[in-house]
Amino acid sequence: MNKDSYTPYKSWQFWIDRGGTFTDIVARHPDGTLLCRKYLSENPEAYADAAVYGIKSILDIPQSDPVPDDLIDKIKMGTTVATNALLERKGDSVLLAITKGFKDALEIGYQARPDTFALKIEKPDILYTQVIEINERVTAKGEGVQALDIERSKKALETAYSQGLTAIAIVLMHGYQYTQHEKQLMQLAKEIGFSQISTSHEVSPLQKLISRGETTLVDAYLTPILLRYIQNISQGLNQHTPAQLLFMQSSGGLTSADTFRGRDAILSGPAGGIVGAVHTAKLAGFDKIIGFDMGGTSTDVSHYAGEFEKAYETEVAGVRMRVPMLHIHTVAAGGGSILRYQDGRFRVGPESAGAVPGPVCYRRNGELAVTDINLCLGKIQADFFPSIFGPEQNLPLDKTSSVKAFADIAHNIGDGRSAEDVAEGFLAIAIEHMAQAIKKISIARGYDVSNYVLNCFGGAGGQHACLVAEKLGIKTVFLHSYSGILSAYGMGLADIKVERQKVACPLIQSGDISAIQVAIEQLKQTNTEDLTSQGLNNKQINHQSSALLKYLNTDTSLNIPLDSFAAMQKNFTQQHEQQFGFSADKPIMIDTLIVESYGGAEKVVEAKHPLAKDLSIKAHSVRQIYSQGQWLDAQVIHLSSLTFGHEVSGPTIIVEPTGTIIIEKNWRAKVNVNGHLELHFEPINTALISGQTIEESALNKADPVTLELFNSAFMSIAQQMGIVLRNTSQSVNVKERLDFSCAIFDATGNLIANAPHVPVHLGSMDASVKVIINGQQSINPGDVFVQNNPYNGGSHLPDITVITPVFDAANTHILFYVASRAHHEDVGGIAPGSMSSLATNIHQEGILLDSVKLVAQGQFQTANIETLFSSGDYPARNVAQNMADLMAQTAANKTGVNELLKLVDQHGLKTVYAYMQHIQDSAKTSVQNVLARLENGEFSYPLESGSTIKVKITIDKVNLQACIDFTGTSAQQNNNLNAPKAITQAAVMYVFRCLVDDDVPLNAGCMQALEIIVPEGSILNPRFPAAVVAGNVETSQAVTNALFAALGALGSSQGTMNNLTFGNENYQYYETICSGSPAGDGFNGVAAVHTHMTNTRMTDPEILEQRYPVMLKEFVIDRDSGGSGKWHAGDGITRTITFLEDMQCSILSGHRVTPPFGLKGGQAGRVGRNWLTKGNGEQQALAGCDFTTVAAGDSISIQSPTGGGFGKANE
């Protein structure tokens, strides 16, 4: 159809994308023409390696023969070898060398658990085989506290080497900037004989010990794997003089095989797709695109609006990576995503059938998957798909088996729907997942995608592009001629590239132009030397310099092109306002300098042709596709038969060698001047089930497909709100510790969806919303309310809830409510941080905001709110930060408002209301299913304050209702361990949601089968003005322990959050500290992870020391400290912080006298301890709830209690 223009070459080039399911190869012939091939990545019956097999097949060389020298110029490749090794934990054995006191830092990570509601908490497997502590220490300012102990370090390294460890990761505190000790250890390791040495200052010269450390570990873990894979390719080709072999890095540039390392390989394949998408879109005249790369295993989405977007911290396979990567969001919805119908719900993914055994239609006894959907609906035609299946790899896809599998589900549902209806239902859910992923990288970050182009590629992308675009309101889809193999094509278009970063010293941070220029030139010189060693000359090399700028003492940086400091600050402010909706009155600093150097890309010039008019199109045949509940005739057209200017309306099936493109009804495809397809939406009626207006008579009963779509849509809105809140907030509590939650509610205040952020917030925000609804003051369009009163729907004073009513388009009726709750660092009170252990009434805990208008008819009430924060005997200490976080919460709520109104526009208000009720009914049914298998129980839980929590749970097996009765619980106390009733309800909701053991959205329906009795005036339902700050964080943990014990469902947790607060007039800091997780029937607990009612992250040690005048002396796991039994509780921790200034310090903690109980014969856990160590070494014990003043040089140590064992040992 078209031919790209190349200068003829003497030799072949091969551009390869080795994906999880398929390996795509673009071969450039010496005459410039391109050949395209697709192979199964894993096909052990036919070949050892798909890339080598493909190269030899294209060159027509027998597989056992060597490839002649000079036949191949270059091989450019992206590979999932490293990603797969990381996912499967099949890397090399690694020794971790880390600063003394931090041997367990990477295992603890940031202490948050990955699945909020899992009874059996599972953490990602650690990557190192052995760890040694290095006796050395420098401060955040580079001051030497402890010189490197060379002799002891050498002995430790020699011992590990003698045990067979040859790969080492060296990670020292503040080593990213102060590199001397890491360099000394690297030299020792070389002398001893380590073959793989990864140092954190080389691998990831960026701040944050945990993520930099994990990145260094990944590098040491995976680089040997990559080297062996490269060696296998070389041996497979068997050339005497090997062709140049280049690999795609996660950052979007190629590098030679001998410099390709583990840190760069994680997104190797997907990065090629983005490069290809951007280059091809530019050539077609598009400058704003959403990249949509749908393959066999997953879908990668990306955003481009003039420059490649990079992330400098991301998480892959449970590992935090602190290296530049193209910003890609991955969702587990690919051609191989497994489909299930379970408990009345349609599920798509996240599990994948992979290439082996693959979907049902692959003839390997696989599982039903997305590819089966398209085969069943006629959107894949088996005779146009490679016949590479069956024992002899010569059979087509098996459509009969796919249809039968969907028919079996239809029979199971039993409501008369057909196999095709079932398949289309699954398809709608898969489309929803992909659309929500795109919203996270666009709408949630302030970009309106309606004027973007969806650049679709990947083997499965063409079958879904129209539906995804329509779901997002995108009206144009672009498909390049090589869209089915665009990742491989992108490998050929990419530059050889290297990027280096330098963390800013104080001079650079302040914008000193001379210091910046010197540092930039050093980075350019190093990069140039790197690129010339890879075959480029100086004329080919280009440099692009930029800086990461951020507000002082914040964590969100933006990449700004290098300019004068004033110009960069202005650019930063503009970008910050565009992305986050505000700019702050705070100093802007340079965090990191970046130089990206590149060159050597293939120069592609696509020929342009005049557009033909009135030419007939030769259709191969007419087939049928199933769409919107009916079979439609669809002409089948070979892509090669289309020419410039051809137009075709949907439904049409366009087939080409590497994929199938479906032009849906309501869409028109046009071949542009370059010979590529542009698809344009022509709305007649919508193409998706989810977009249809449902008959009112059908709304009384939930359709399982539509139910799942709304489940996903509601949860996505809450998650998008959370993204905006984290991005726009300025406080450590929100940005780094993630101590916030976002939710949406119906018009009566019932919880509809709550993104699983902090459990103690989950079931209690609805009380705050209902206070606004039932209050006496007017609610007008443009109003926003702020609330933190524990006696009027709140939890404790630092948790401030911002509530926004959602009005209809006419501004006459309230349709919904949205709310966000965030823990503010200080709201006043008798101690910094507003978490004093000495408070005995609510007024001593801080400023009380009772249903106050934060925004009145669109006007932010700044003066009034600032006055409230500054009032009373104990005013807030940092009002500016309070205001900034309230603005961030308001912005998050605005996102929720916009998305809910879009949902109404798309589906109609009656449908949205109906499914708000249906998802609550579904959650109620899930809880009732749990009740059917539970037995009555009761438990008495003594607290160290002298109070007792008593709970009796009675199950009505006939009506499937439960009564949770706290009668007998002690009266409220003259301390702050009283918990508002909303907190008790949140704990009940959390426990029963955990017992569901399924991915059920948390909403008000979870409580509809539960009656809760909480005596007024008790510690679980106190009367005003009792202090409550510890009830939210401490008593809530005791309530969950008591509930699980009454049901016999789970062993005890540590029963506390170990709340540590310190500060003075200049600094305020708060953290909760983890311990081990509970044991249960059939499983042990795991060490050092947050449990139950909290899941906040721990501030990174290097960030902590940079922002606060403290040093983290140790944070270690106390091995074998968990309660023993048939199943052991997880191990606890010890954490010690040394203060560099005088501070006030509060601790709120429990189980310092009595240990957490064992259950069903298990042994009790250990008691926790708190103590102060004076600068002179003198130790002073601290109570569980205590307050002290610390001087510079003093240290506070927290040793967590641990849960008890579950079941008798040896039984």
Given as residue ranges, the uncertain stretches (5+ residues, pLDDT < 50) are 1-7, 685-692
Give the strand order of the largest sheet, numbering strands 1, 2, ... along the chain.
Answer: 20-15-14-23-24-36-35-32
Briefly note the structural class of the backbone. Answer: alpha+beta
Q: Supply the number of helical segments.
A: 26
Name the average pLDDT: 90
Write down how many β-strands occur, each being a DSSP E stretch of 2 or more residues: 56
The Rg value, from CA coordinates, equals 31 Å
Share of residues in helices? 25-40%
Shape: globular
> What share of the residues does DSSP label as strand, in percent?
15-25%
Distance between the termini: 73 Å
Largest sheet: 8 strands, mixed
Write up this protein.
By secondary structure, the protein is α+β, with helices and mostly antiparallel strands. It is built from 26 helices and 56 strands. A hairpin with a 2-residue loop joins β21 and β22. α4 packs across α5 (180-192), α17 (704-728) runs antiparallel to α22 (879-907) and α23 (909-931) crosses α24 (981-996). The radius of gyration is 31 Å and the shape is globular. Mean pLDDT is 90; it is low at 1-7 and 685-692.
Record keyword descriptors for this entry:
1211 residues; alpha+beta; 8-stranded mixed β-sheet; 7-stranded antiparallel β-sheet; 56 strands; 28% helix; 25% strand; disordered N terminus
How would you concisely characterize the structure shown here?
With 1211 residues, the protein is an alpha+beta fold. The longest helix has 29 residues, at 209-237.
